[in-house]
# Entry
Amino acid sequence: MVSKIGLVLEGGGMRGIFTVGVLDYLMDKGIWFPYVIGVSAGASNGISYVSRQRGRSYFSNIELLQKHNYIGWKNWFRGRGYIDLDFLFYEYPDRYYPFDYEAYAAYPGRFVMVASNCLTGKAEYIEEKHDFRRLLDACKASCSLPVMCPLSYVDGIPMVDGGVCDSVPVFHAMKEGYTRNVVVLTRNKGYRKPEKDFYFPSFIYRQYPAIRERLRLRYRAYNRLVDEIDCLEEQGRVLAIRPIKPIQVGRTERDVVKLQALYEEGYACGSQIASYLSGKANGGFIR
# Structure
């Protein structure tokens, strides 16, 4: 077994419930990775994996959604965006399902969140184990869907969803020394974004031309990246865990029946990881 294995989590909004199923499987089997990197929903779900809180992400994606309906136009008209990220990151962790900051800080591995810097148009890879407000700021920034959510700020820098600049940060994981990776994707094998530039009104992000350009050509970067992941998979350097069929869950899905089904598919697909992680684990912590 190679010395280092990373866990890479794609975003995808509510499609991330597939990832929640995979992560719950890992926790049930006592499998812990030394390096976890997540984008958008991958970051918000990954943070509960690192704090070892099995069921916390399921609760927020399904049960909390039913009770508080944090997705919808009513949030937009309150100035919080179509998805109420303030509720999810500043109210939910304290009032509804307390986040275990101590367990998160004690995790013997690294957790990285990816956000997109509006000033530079480049990805920011953020780690935080001590300043918990900054931790939540970074996770919120990673999830801030362009246009649908207000800009987020980390260290005073305006940021949007990490998927704009690095949708699946497997190459960053490799750069950090993790030569083998389990990559959890939220689209089926063969999926590619439509080859069409993304145009939006000139007044949106007018003061941030770099991020406008990344948004305009995002489909090219995404499709190229997925092609490269397919090659890494063929070489045995990556295990890609994906939904088996094209999914019917949208980025802002609110249909609990669809979400539950996708969660269960993710849990079932998580079993593929056991055969990939050959060799012995040191106390359940993959090294």
